[in-house]
Amino acid sequence: MKKIGLFYGSTTGRTKKVAEMIQKEFDPKSLDLYNIKDVNPSDILKYENLIFGTSAWGIGDMQDDWETFIDDLAELDLSDKKIALFGLGDQIEYPESFADGLGTLYCRIQVKDNIVGFCSTEGYKYYYSAAEKDGQFIGLVIDQDKQPELTEERIKKWVTGIKKEFK
Ligand SMILES: Cc1cc2nc3c(=O)[nH]c(=O)nc-3n(C[C@H](O)[C@H](O)[C@H](O)COP(=O)(O)O)c2cc1C
Fold first, then answer.
1. From ligand 1's centre to the CA of 29, what distance in Å?
2. Which of 18, 42, 45, 91 makes a 20 to 30 Å CA pair with 7?
C-alpha cells in the first residue's frame, strides 16, 4: 500500500486520540500523522492515500483548525487521491447536529468519487446528522463522549475496509 497521510483537528484531544488509535491499525512506517493546525497544503499532496478527521462544534462547524484550513484544501487537486474521513461528535448532547463537522468536511472535498470508507448508522441514536448520506455515514463516526467503549471495534472494522480501497 502507498503511504498514508492522516490529518486531524482536535480541540480537547479526543480526535487526536482517535487518530492515534487509527494509526496503530497500520504499519507504523506506512502512515504519517499530522495536526491540521501545523500543516502546509503541500504536505497533503505528498500522499496518495489520505485520512481526514474532525470533531463537530455547533451546527455544521468543523473543529476550529479545519475551519481555518478548509479554503486551502478546496484549492488542492485531490483527483488522483483516495480519501477516507472520520468525525467525532456527541449524539446525546447534540442529537440534531450529530457529527456535523464530518458532513461539512465531506461537502468541501471537490472530488467525491474518491472518498472511501462509508459506514453503517446502526448503533447510533440521533435526529439529524449532516454526516449521513443515502442512509450511511460518509465516513467513520466516533462518539468518544458517550460510546467510548465502542471506539476500538469501530476503528478496526473501518480500517479493514479502507485498507482494501486504498492504493
Ligand atoms: C460547545 C460544543 C459544541 C459542540 N457541538 C457539537 C455538535 O454540534 N455536534 C456533535 O456531534 N458534537 C458536538 N460537540 C461535541 C464534540 O464534537 C466532542 O466532544 C468531540 O469529541 C470533541 O473532539 P475534540 O476534542 O477532538 O475537538 C460539541 C462540544 C462542545 C463543547
1. 31
2. 91
Opening angle at CA 8, ends 59 and 3, nearest 5: 140
Residue 145 CA: distances (Å) to CA of 13, 86, 88, 154:
12, 15, 9, 15
pTM over 0.85: yes
- Report the separation in Å between the CA atom of 103 and the middle of ligand 1, taken as the mean of its atom positions: 14
Q: Does the pLDDT at position 89 exceed 90?
A: yes
Fold of the CATH domain 4-165? Rossmann fold (3.40.50)
Q: Is 132 in the pocket of ligand 1 (CB under 6 A)?
A: no
Atom of ligand 1 nearest to the CA of 61: 8
Residue-range domain boundaries for the chain: 4-165
